[in-house]
Amino acid sequence: MSNEDALARFRAYIAAFNRGDFDAVTANYTDDVELVNGTGARLVGKQAIVDFYHKVRADTDRTIEVVECFADEDGVAADLKSEFVATRDAPDFPSGPMAKGDRLRINSFALYTLRDGKFAQIKAGVHKREWVRVDS
Predict the structure, then answer these.
(1) Domain that holds residue 35
(2) pTM of the predicted model, to two decimals?
């Protein structure tokens, strides 16, 4: 897969994520995919990742913007901006309690390791976190 193809596929993956199309999202994963997200949670397997993100989507609307990304034959590195908007009170939200209308904006770096053209490992680290509370 060329670098250009990998980047186009990555952008399509992010677009599917933003739409909540988890069938398209998981089509990009190996069966044994491992995700370590920005909170340090480790999830293994497609279903574990989908279950986690279904819970996140139940509490928030999340959008991801690709700021910059690079690819080679081994993977993709991306600088991402995400915004979570609480659609209901979420006292157990993974990044911290949220009230309906609260916003969490994060900037993260993510490394996606490829195996056979699919993501086998995803590691994310947050480098900026901003809370916008409705009661502020």
Answers:
(1) 3-132
(2) 0.91
